[in-house]
Structures are given as C-alpha cells and as structure tokens.
Queue: 2 jobs
Job 1
Amino acid sequence: MNYQIQRGTYDAYGDDAMNMKKIEETLSAIALTYGYVPIHIPTYEQTELFTRSVGESSDIVNKEMFSFVDKGGRNISLRPEMTAGVMRAIVTNKLYAQDLPLKFFYCGNVFRYERPQAGRYREFTQFGVECVGVSSYYLDAEAIMLGYNSLLMLGFPKVILKINTIGDSLSRENYKAALKEYFKPYKNTMCEDCQRRYDTNVLRILDCKSEEDQKIIANAPKIENYLTDSAKEYFQKIIKILDECQIEYEIDPNLVRGLDYYSQVVFEYHFVSDQGVNLGALGGGGHYDNLLHDVGGPSLSSVGLAFGLERINTLLKEIDPDCYEKTTVDIFVVHMGNETIEHAFYLASSLRNEGFTVDLTYENKNIGAQLKLATRKKASFALIVGENEIKEHTYGVKNLLTQEQVNVAYEDLVDYFDEHLMEEHHEG
Ligand code: HAM
C-alpha cells in the first residue's frame, strides 16, 4: 500500500524544518520583549466555540472547518485559528481576575478546508499574540508595531502594512445599512457567496475576490463617512502613533478581514518579492471588543494578530536562500572500526555534554567515506580516533574547510573547539 500525503498538507524536513523552527524562535523572542508570555491551548474545541466567535457568516465557519462528532456524541472541530481558543482558556481558568492586560503568545497548527494553492494549506502554522483586557489605542499601536517590526527583524526588506477601521458597533450598524442599500440592486448578479454575505454580514462582501464583484464594490460607500466621532478619533490616534514611529502604512477602506469578531482597527501585513511572488497576507489582526464576553467571560477589549509561518518561510527563502542557519555539525568523530568505535561513542557523548553538536557513524566505513559523510553533514571539524590516538590521548583534528590537520591532547579538546568554532561562527 502506497499512502498518499493528504491534499493541502506538507512534510518539512532538513533546512526547511530548521527554518520554521528558527522563525518561531525569533518571533517568540520578540514577543517576550513586548511583555507577552506563552500559552498552550488544545488543537480541538467544541464546534460552537468557533461558530460563535469566528462567526456564522465567515468562510472559515461556513466552508472550512474540520468538524466531526466524537465517540461521546460531542460536536468537535479542529481549531481554524487560535484566538477563540485563547479566549476560552482565559474564561475556563478565570485568568481575567489577574492583572490586565493579559499578554499571551502562541504557536501551533491550525486547520482550514481551503482550496490548496501557493501559500495556502489545509494544515498550517500560526504564530500569534493576544493582548486581552484593556482598551487602549496604545496597545493597538503596540500590537501593529510588534507585527511590523517582527517581519523586518526576520529579514523582510520592506513590509506593506494595510490598515483600516471598521468603527465601533454604532458606526458599523450605520455603515452596514448603507451597504445593504447600495448592494441591493446588484445582489442577484453577484457571486453566490456575496448573495449569502448580503444576508449574513454585508460587510464581508467588501472582501470578495471575484473580479466582476470587485467592479461593483469599487463604488460602494466608504466606512469613513459612517464613523462616529469617537471611532474616527480612536483611529486617528493610532495613525498618529504610526506616523510618529515612522511606520509606513496604506489605509485600505475595503479591508474588513475574514473573521467576525473585530471592531475598530484591523490590519494586515503583505510582501511582494522582486520576482512578483505574492502569497497573500503574511499576517493580520485587529481590535476586538466582545469576544471574551461571547465565550462566557466579562466584557473586556483586546487586540491581537497572527502570522502564517509557511508563507513567511517561503518568502524569506525567496529573498535570500541562505538567510537561515543550516543544519550543521560542529564535530564529526571518525573512527577505525572495532574497539575504536566504543571510544568514539564515549568521546562523542562527553563532547555533547559540553554543548557541542557531534555526530558519527557506527557503520564500518573507511576513513575516506567517513570524511565525505562529515562534509555532506556540513561538519566543521573531523575528530580522528585511531588506536594510537587512544593510547596517546591525543587526537587528529581536521578542519574540513581548510583541510588543515593538527594534533590536540584530550584535555585540550574542549578549549580547542570552543576557540576555533567561535572563529568559524564569526567568519561564517
Ligand atoms: P487570519 O488572517 O485568518 O487571522 O490568519 C492569519 C494568517 O494565517 C494569515 O495572514 C496567513 O498568513 C495565514 N493563513 C491563513 N490561512 C492560511 C492557509 N490556508 N494556509 C497558510 N497560511 C494561512 C486569524 O486567524 C486571527 N486569529 C488573527 C488574530 C489574532 N486576530 C486577532 N488576534
């Protein structure tokens, strides 16, 4: 039986898997500097958590959830995003009783039954942050800047930040009424999704990708004319902070995002490579006021964002194929077979305990084959263990880049590698 990989899923290994890990580590380190702490939540939840929060009118809930009934008859879904789960965890554990805002970051796999294409998977990885419990345009600006600066620090030469306000609930009510009025005569000619959106959440029509519908959307009323004074002021304050901090942005009046829980500011990060590769948003987020309350907690405002790590990884490799550390080995231990294998085994183990990356083979290969293997594994040094070396407690150490070989006494090995690997890393 030849098992096929499932559509929309992928295997990552070698440098690719290493890059994903490195991106997660970099983003985690940055989130820590903004005062976020990690949170871990389950991969699946009650389906209703997502229908209530992400929203009945969203494509995610409508078409893309991996839902099933478990053996106990419960309706379960694999998480299509993480924000709802974080809110549920805050309510379950009554974390809202702690000092606010709560600032959490997470990284995990999420599932959406979408049509697979470049940068679009059915199982993918999101890294995100949620700042919960305090409404402040400073916190919104801080989250926007965290996302923007993270992408620059990861190696993107430029980030296109799209930003918009969808106002407070009163602004949205007025705006939705105006949109309904505007789209009414076109409704029956628009795509099936938009006909549904017209009834469930007319705002979502602005997000439609169909070219025909886009022509109609181009002349639709704009939110700015329906904002309450306080919503307008709130957005202006965020924009002012971005200006002060010299963060470039584009105000996109049609940016409404694909999830129902947002209010006030929403934003997305985009990047187009020199070769014109555009995988869609690298990340996105926004302010939300009612989500915690909707999942059973107190009414507290929040802001958050999430990145798609696969899209980031693909584009970073496109920008600079050598941008990340490769899977490398510091020391490859080469032995002569028989009893020297045992010595090599213990030597490798003690060097690993000193913090070096050490590899070796237990197969009977001649020295030449072992040195070739060491080079394929991108080892910096070969440490040669023969019978004489064992007797004299002195080993041959070969620099695999320069091919120079020196003898180093057992007790000097750690210092030697410390010093020379440091040089290598600096040069490399
Ligand atoms: P989202 O925009 O649905 O937001 O997803 C965030 C990111 O996940 C996207 O910008 C994109 O990079 C990536 N992504 C989405 N779908 C796919 C896919 N099929 N394949 C690969 N990558 C994908 C959220 O999920 C919100 N929870 C963000 C948030 C947090 N808002 C507030 N807090």
Job 2
Amino acid sequence: MPPPQFWKPGAAAPGSSLDRETEAEGSLLPSTSRNAHLSLEAQRQRLPIYKHREKLLYCVEKYRVVIVVGQTGSGKSTQIPQYLHEAGWTKENHVVACTQPRRVAATSVATRVAEEVGSVLGDEVGYSIRFEELSSPTRTRIKYMTDGMLFRETMMDPLLSRYSVIMIDEAHERGAYTDLLLGLLKKIMRKRPELRVIISSATIDAEDFLEYFNSNADGTDRTKDDAIIVSLEGRMFPVEVCYLKDPPVDYVEAAVQTVFNIHMKEPPGDILVFLTGREEIDGALQTVADRIQTISKAAPKLLPLPLYATLPPEEQDLIFEPPPRDTRKIIFSTNIAEASVTIDGIKYVVDSGFVKMKTFNPRNGMDVLSVTPCSLASANQRAGRAGRTSAGKCFRLYPSSVIPTRNPYSPMPISTPPELTRSDISVYLLQLKALGIDNLAKFDFMSPPPSEMMVRALEFWYCLKAIDEEGRLTRPLGVRMAEVPLDPMMAAILLNSQEFRCGEEILTIAAMTQVQNVFNMSDGGNKAMLSELERRKFTAEEGDHLTLLNAYNAFTRYGQKDKSWCGNHRINHKALSRAMAIRKQLKKYLDRFGIKVESCQGDAKRLRRCLVSGYFKNAARMMPDGTYRSARENAVLHVHPSSVMFTRQPSTGWVIFHEVIETTKSFMRDLTVVEEEWLVELAPHFYTFKGGGLKKH
Ligand code: CDP
Ligand code: MG
C-alpha cells in the first residue's frame, strides 16, 4: 500500500530564511511565572518529584545507574542535581553534571536552578555550552552542559574524575553525543566504581537503557542488578486525542483552522501548536493575524505567539506570561516545546505530526535538515503537554490510520531513530579516535552506526589528511582537528589557513558561520526589499562567506558600539557580538597551536582556495537551466533564497557550500564561487580529472 499523499511535507514557502534547528542559538529562556506568589522552596516541594526524593537518593547510593522516567515538568532536570548536592555528592570538590541535548535547555535550566539555590549563575550553579562557559572551576557544584561539551571534556580528563554523578537528561532523544557519552560512561564506570550515572528518559525507552547498563544480564537474581528504573508517576490529567478524518493538503493551514475551531467551540484554555520550523511558524502567525479580523468582535480575544530556539529573549518572555483576561494564548512552536520548555496553562495541543530532523541523504551524500513524520513517541509526548494542569485535548492533523501500532505500513516510526544511525558520523569519528578509540567496531554503541557510514567517514577524514592509510590520527593536523570545536570542514579550513596565509579572514568567516541570522531579512513585503538593499552594501561577488566577512568588518568598525547603525543596516547586533566572542576563542586555539595568523591583504583568491581545502566535498556545478549538480553524487541542488548567489551566477560555474537544507527542494546554503581546478588540486584523493569533468575517485 503506498503511503497516503498527505505524508508529503506541506509546502514551505522558500521565501524567507530558515531556522537552523540543529544548532539552536543559546538565548536564555526565562523561568515561568506560575506560582510566583509561592517561595521558591514551596514551589520545589510542590513538584511531583519531591515525594520521590528519598527513594531517588537511596537508589543512587545503591545502584550505579538509575534510569528516571517521568512526565515533563515533574522536576527531573531542576531537582535531581539539587537533591544530590544537598545529600553530599558534591563534597570534596566533586561536581554533579547534568547534560542537555540543546544549548537553550542547558542555559535555561541552569538559570532556574541558580535562582532556586540562591546562587549567582556561574558560581555554585554554572553551565557550559559551546563557546560559552559560565562556571567556576573551584566553586561550581552543579554544572549543566550540553552533552557535546561533556564529551569534549573526556579529551582532557578521560575518566571525568571531577564528577561524582553524571546525569544524562532527555536521553530518549538519542542525540549523537548522548549515545557517545553512554558508551564512554560504560567504559569509565569499569575504572571508577564509585561513579554514579542517572539517565532521564521517556517511559517508552527506559527498558532499553536498563538492558544496556545492567551488568546482571541474565536477571535471575535481581539483587545483583546494578541498574534500576525509578518512575515518578507525576500527576497527569487525561488527554482526549482526536484525529482528522482525511489528511490535510497543507498542515500549516489545517493547524490554523483547527486553532480557530477550538477558539470558537471549546472552553477557555491555551493552545500549543507543533509545527516544524520558524518559517512555518511565521507563516501561521501571518494567517492568524489576517483571519482574526473575520471573527466576531464579541468572541474572546486571541494572543498568537511564536516559539523557536532563535527567538529573541524579549519575545520569549511573552510565552511564559499569563495572557490578559478573556484572552486565549496560542503558541506556535517547534518541537522545542515537546520536552525542553514547559509552558503552563496549555489545555489544547494541535499536532502537525511532523518534525524537522537531520538525516543522511544518500542521494546527495550529505546530512540534510528535512521535514519528516515525527515518531509515535514524540506524538504522545506532544499530546501529554495538554494534560499538565487539567484534562485536555489533542488534535492530531492526520488520520488515526497513521499510528504505526495500527498500521505497519505507516511512515510514522514508533520511536525516533538514534542520530548516530541516521546521520553523517564523521565529526564524531575523529573525536573518538582522539580519545584513543581506534577500533570503532569494538566500541559499545547502544545502536551502532551503519558500517557504510563508518567507511564514508574514514574516507572523508583521509581526504582531509586527518588520518593516515592505517586509520591513525595524523600529528599534528588530525589531533588538532579533533580539538577545535568546529565542524570537520571548518576545522580543516581554519588549520589550513597558515598555508594559505589568510588566518585573519578565515577566523572571521569561521566565527560568522557559527551564528545565525546575521542579516535581519525575515520581514515580509517592502521591508524585505529594504533589507535586501542594505545587504547589497556588504555583498561580495564571490559569495556568502566573503559577504559575511564584509559585514563583520563593517560591524567592528562602525556598528559594535552603535546599535542604530546596526538597525539601519539590518545587521543583527547580538549575532555579530557573539561572532566576535567566538572569533576570540578560535584565535586562542591557533595561538596555542603556534599557527601564524596573517591577513590575505584583500587577495580573495587565497581565501577561496583555503575554503576549498575544507569544503571540497560540498562542491556543485551550475547547469544551463540555473540548477546545480553536486560534484560527486550528481544530485540536483538549488541555491537557498537567503544566499547572495540566489540572484547571481558563479563566473566559473562552480561553487562550494556549507550545508544543504531540504524543504520543497534541496537548497545549498552559504555559497562561495570557486574554480574547478582547485577542487582537484586541493583534494586529489576525493576527485580526479577525467575527460574534462570531475569524476569520483
Ligand atoms: O525535567 P522535568 O521536565 O521533569 O522538569 P523541570 O525542567 O525540572 O521543571 C520543573 C518545574 O520547574 C517546571 O514545571 C517549572 O515550573 C519550573 N521551571 C522553571 O520555572 N524554569 C525553568 N527554566 C525550568 C523549570
Ligand atoms: Mg527536563
């Protein structure tokens, strides 16, 4: 039976900039204001987890691994580290670590916990996310961090000896670094019997973690177990789930219609709508704004709000505030509201059934961010958000036949496949090698990556000269690449910049590719036109990387201390300031490695050649019809509308690009014009010349 048409992702207008969901910016989310009249201590005691405090502490004493399952909002992330701290697990300079899959979750939970503990953020309670550390090496006792940061820490301290307890939060999401950490922790635990590990997970996956960690595998004598599941049966109200009879043609439109139906027919209560990304959310808000005019003046008011990771903090505040009287709050959110962020007062959930996810696409040989059906586990989690404060309703914008337990042919998976099994693993592979884990086949992955992906990753690293023929890390290049906190391609470019004598400029470009929304381009209509005109002032014929460089240089000269300059030129002050901070940190790496940082003195060719030395894999050629073909897989690619190359043609016919985003088409983002010969010259193992065109080696 072919999958129903409906499961094609709804049309996403390729007009505005896309949210980079996978590398969410870390802006702080404020704590909720519910129960604000209660003291923080009283609020803590009202959380569902509080009843389980003693049991949890007992289990952590007795078992080496404790798997905690419980509804979102029950207090796992904020309370468990505090209980451990209070119970003495942080004595003798020990630290309790709690990892989060997302930056925004790490900073927001740390902020809340610092408040509860009565500490200044960065003192007793701190956090560490990429390019941002707010903690004290001597005083911090509870440390929230992204799982990637803790993984990196094992390069410096292989046994993670500072930590007495490590809590892996949201482990059911099975992000790549979560899985890698689980494997490493298993190894570390063999050498550190006193180390305790806490896994927080959704109920559905708890048994898998137990099986993975419990060394008492045959399970006949339960007293020999060294892992246990603790369930916090938090208060949950029933949620009635409704389905659409027929799949909608456009789920964004269907979501908006459903919102108005709820608003006109259902009792008071706020609405949470799950869409997949910023551009859909902005579209939905626009439609709601247009349609609000048509509803009766007598009807209660509507307050529509967006929620996504890159939202500016001022706008995030609004999400958590109770709406004005007689007003229904409607939040259009990405899956960030699924588990990481808790909003009180939600009674209705509208679920599109889709999520934006990074997956390896064998057609073009790279990871792409694409809209795909979410898993049943996600759908259930979303529905649960309606039942936190009272009985609720969840409206699923798909027919019940899509539920995989009812239909084995459904495109909806039961649970989300672990990231390591569905994405390009090259970045992780090098880091594992740097940890001395050379034989990846022997690493105890909870779900091993497909061997084809391992081979691909090895080949890629070999072409980047990071490993030798035997698969060993090269010195110093490979070792340094693993250390620099950038994606493999950018790391290579940065380290190669000495050879091309353009370190000054490459540092800037590397930093600028790490921040989002450099130009405020998202406004519609006339404003978009003005933004585009402003951006043209910085636009370089050579493409986006040099345009970013121009914007940065103008910013440091004119805009750094002058916000109105930034406003006038549609330059995002916050993003640029962050790029400056990142650049400074990257410079420290180069200094430490003794890499000479020179300026190319305006010689753009050197810069572009240096970019090719890392980006060679992401090369594409323009076709007569204006589309592109990837150099190696010959896959069809398009220029993303946000690129300065959208309205230009590469003089040489060739470009390299940073990444591919899939919506209605495969879009290349961040492009630079290059020469075909450079690809062969700088990546001889990846390409060879045959008959005038590039051929796969
Ligand atoms: O981790 P889990 O979902 O079980 O709950 P949590 O994140 O520890 O949140 C427990 C409660 O703390 C929430 O219901 C919020 O009321 C509050 N909280 C907050 O006010 N601000 C945050 N940034 C996080 C949690
Ligand atoms: Mg949590």
